[in-house]
Specification:
Blueprint: H1 3-40, H2 85-91, H3 141-152, H4 167-170, H5 175-179, E1 187-188, E2 194-196, E3 202-204, E4 208-214, E5 219-222, E6 228-231, E7 234-244, E8 250-251, E9 258-265, E10 271-280, H6 285-292, E11 302-309, E12 322-327, E13 338-343, E14 347-349, H7 351-361, E15 377-379
Parallel strand pairs: 1-8, 2-15, 10-13, 10-14
Antiparallel strand pairs: 3-6, 4-5, 4-11, 5-7, 6-7, 7-9, 9-10, 12-13, 12-15
């Protein structure tokens, strides 16, 4: 090898030597690094068990933390243009503050203290034009109850809230009007009436001074003592007679233009009432005398000087042809103490007298009541 070749070979040897040195250094560094990582990882024995997690109680804070979400829970993406939750919370109005009570002035009793009765108001000074004294603002309970009862008390009548259907509810004294089993008037079935010898009626009527009263429900003629009847061995004194239009009793479901009731009372308190049917026709002497003096003021009896009236002229010609049954008053309190005697024959009344009566007191008949187990007797002659 020439000197020139030797000179050219030196650099090549030097380069190879340097490359080998670098390679060895890199290998040493790599081996060193690998050894370090291996030594830092502790080896667990094959039979070692996994360590159990230690439960640590979270520190209680003033604000309760929400529970962590489960790994399976996901939040669905909001639709396009929908505001974020943070934005909605930021835009929500702040809650209104809770109302607070103003501070009570000094000396004011607490709100839960019992009310203090108000002192009576001083009377105003008297003056020439002083208004009349007003009623006390707080009337006693009994006075208020009495006023309320007076305002709601309904008087009995023949229509509206005080009509016959309501009589039994207006007062406890009127219970028989709604609950009684022997009420009057009723329909008399002539064919079903039992013919028997009830007995003839002995009439002992005397003329009486004419005294008339319009009691708001009917026109009534009061009788002086001395007139009576004998019925079933008992004496009944005539007290008064009055009228109804249309008739209260029906005979074979037929109403008459009017009905006269002659009311008698015995010494033991029993009543015997004779019912006489009136039909439009000729005038009647008693009716003429009464109708001429009908008073229009309520509950003010009117005595007609020098005028006499005899109830006998209100009876039909055949006075022993009658129906008989046990019943009641046809007005409140509807007491079931009446021996009813309903004449089979009628008497007459003029059309004008019917009209005058209705214009004065109105129609005043109670509807027919059920017979229940009662029987109507007819006097056999």
């Amino acid at each position: 090898m020439s000197d020139t070749d030797q000179q050219n070979a030196k650099p090549e040897t030097t380069q190879l030597l340097g490359l080998w040195v670098v390679t060895m250094v890199v290998a040493i560094i790599f081996i060193s690094t690998l050894s370090t990582r291996t030594s830092e990882s502790p080896k667990e024995p094959a039979d070692a068990k996994p360590a159990q997690a230690t439960h640590v109680e979270p520190v209680q804070s003033a604000q309760k933390m929400a529970p962590p979400l489960d790994e399976k829970q996901t939040m669905a993406p909001l639709p396009a243009g929908h505001p974020s939750i943070e934005q909605l919370q930021a835009e929500a109005p702040a809650p209104a503050p809770a109302p607070t009570m103003p501070e009570l002035p000094a000396g004011h009793p607490p709100l839960d203290a019992p009310p203090v009765p108000a002192a009576p108001m001083p009377a105003p000074a008297a003056s020439m034009h002083a208004a009349p004294a007003a009623a006390p603002m707080h009337a006693p309970a009994e006075h208020a109850k009495a006023d309320s009862h007076a305002q709601h008390e309904v008087h009995w009548g023949y229509e509206g809230e005080g009509g016959p259907e309501q009589w039994g509810t207006l007062k406890k004294e009127y219970l028989a009007c709604g609950e009684g089993a022997q009420q009057s008037p009723t329909n008399i079935d002539a064919k079903a009436a039992i013919a028997t010898k009830v007995g003839d009626i002995a009439f002992n009527y005397q003329p009486s001074p004419l005294e008339i009263v319009n009691n708001g429900h009917t026109v009534q003629v009061n009788f002086a003592p001395g007139s009576s009847i004998q019925f079933k061995g008992k004496t009944f004194e005539l007290l008064q007679f009055h009228f109804h239009s249309p008739s209260e009793h029906q005979i074979d479901y037929r109403y008459f233009d009017m009905e006269a009731h002659l009311v008698h009372k015995s010494a033991d308190g029993a009543l015997a009432v004779i019912g006489v049917m009136l039909e439009r026709g000729e005038s009647n002497p008693v009716m003429d005398a009464v109708w001429e003096h009908i008073p229009h003021e309520i509950n003010k009896p009117k005595s007609v000087v020098g005028a006499l009236v005899n109830a006998e002229t209100l009876l039909p010609a055949n006075r022993n042809a009658y129906y008989h049954y046990m019943g009641s008053l046809t007005t409140p309190p509807c007491s079931e103490i009446v021996n009813w005697i309903v004449m089979q024959d009628s008497i007459s009344v003029t059309d004008g007298q019917v009209t005058t009566f209705v214009n004065t007191v109105g129609e005043n008949n109670r509807p027919a009541q059920p017979m229940h187990r009662r029987q109507v007797l007819t006097n056999a002659q």
